[in-house]
Write a structure and sequence with these properties.
The protein is an alpha/beta fold and about 350 residues long. The chain has one domain: Aldolase class I (TIM Barrel, Alpha-Beta Barrel), CATH 3.20.20.70. The protein contains 12 helices and 12 strands. Helix content is about 35%, strand content about 15%. Bound molecules: flavin mononucleotide. The site of flavin mononucleotide has 20 residues, from strand 4 and helix 10.
Length: about 350
């Protein structure tokens, strides 16, 4: 049996394999409520054989959406509709996670298939908020968050986690990557605050650490708590892999089970060394030096490549995004390529068994 298709226990959750679906926004919600598109999209991914389907960034507050069409989990109604995803997944032994998110200064933008840029409040957008009133190039300027708003945000993450558990998700992931709000607090490029939430490393990581602690109080030991980080800003003087190792130690101490290691997104000035598996080195370093489980993500496209990444145990799982869009049954194909067999859904069995 390959490493990719062997079980993995993280926190209180046992995944049937280590080929996981990475979170992917669908920009197709209405008032934050997922729609029929999501049923088709997640249905195909759930029946594809992954150990974990992590659903898209879901806003903890309306102004935390990347676009007006992004999904949310700030109301009970949104959570009730989300509950269909874990309910369906359970039939296939697939675990589900939800990414709790706030887009900060990168909120209130157009969907990717429209012109890039901000949506004005007069056109259904809103005033964005951030640690400091510094715009992301090409977007409207955010307003600096008050200390009261920072307090409120912690409550929004906690309430969203509670709703997500009620909806039946096995894993809660805090989105602290890709230049969105929690990453904006971490990075010295976007955080110029002079209070206890800005300046030193300890101050910049304070908000994420507090949110992780609050959310852990809500997420029981039977479930998993992940944090997705951008392990590097890929900018001199920005957030670095060394910062990520130190942060991951702190998150581990607060009960986080796994660090989902992505990178970049804080500024268009980033100089990314893109190539197959280009973020794997971050996942390796964090797991080895911070002693917390990690998954790798980014340009992992074949079963052989995923198996190689997992082979020496320095990374515990892989998340796959675009290759899963191209083939939602990627795990079934990858297993076959590695000489393992994982079942097709029963409904398709007649097409793929000798009987
Ligand atoms: C359509 C699309 C939507 C995405 N939405 C999210 C998201 O909601 N949250 C997130 O953390 N990353 C998001 N990403 C990034 C992916 O999860 C992944 O990290 C990235 O695509 C690199 O992996 P890949 O090379 O396997 O595609 C998105 C990527 C795509 C292609």
């Amino acid at each position: 049996m390959s490493k990719l298709f062997s079980e993995l226990k993280v926190g209180g959750v046992t995944f049937k394999n280590r080929a996981w679906v990475s979170p992917m926004c669908q920009y197709s919600a209405v008032e934050g409520v997922i729609q029929d598109w999501h049923a088709v999209h997640y249905g195909s991914l759930i029946t594809g054989g992954s150990g974990l389907v992590m659903v898209e960034a879901s806003a903890v507050a309306p102004e935390g959406r990347i676009t007006p069409r992004c999904a949310g989990i700030w109301t009970d109604q949104q959570a009730q509709v989300w509950a269909e995803v874990p309910r369906f997944a359970q039939r296939f032994g697939v675990k589900t996670g939800i990414q709790l998110a706030h887009a900060g200064r990168k909120a209130s933008t157009n969907v990717p298939w429209d012109e890039p840029g901000s949506v004005a409040p007069s056109a259904g957008g809103w005033q964005t908020i951030a640690p400091s009133a510094i715009a992301f190039e090409g977007y409207a300027a955010p307003r600096e968050m008050t200390l009261d708003e920072i307090e409120e945000l912690k409550g929004q993450f906690a309430a969203a986690a509670e709703r997500a558990l009620g909806a039946g998700f096995d894993v809660i992931e805090i989105h602290a990557a890709h230049g969105y709000l929690l990453h904006e607090f971490l990075s010295p490029i976007s955080n110029k605050r002079t209070d206890e939430y800005g300046g030193s490393f300890e101050n910049r990581i304070r908000l994420l650490c507090e949110i992780a602690s609050y959310v852990r109080l809500i997420v029981p030991a039977t479930h998993g708590l992940f944090v997705r980080i951008s392990a590097s800003d890929w900018i001199d003087g920005g957030w670095s892999i060394e910062d990520s190792v130190a942060l991951s130690r702190e998150l581990k101490a607060r009960g986080v089970d796994l660090i989902d290691c992505s990178s970049a997104g804080i500024s268009p000035e980033q100089q990314i060394e893109v190539g197959p598996g280009y973020q794997v080195k971050f996942a390796r370093q964090i797991q080895q030096e911070a002693g917390i489980l990690t998954n790798a993500v980014g340009m992992i496209t074949t079963g052989e490549q995923a198996e190689e990444i997992l082979s020496d145990g320095a990374v515990s799982a892989v998340m796959i995004a675009r290759a899963m869009l191209g083939n939602p049954r990627w795990p079934i194909q990858a297993a076959a390529d590695l000489g393992d067999e994982i079942p097709w859904p029963n409904q398709y069995a007649r097409g793929f068994t000798a009987r």
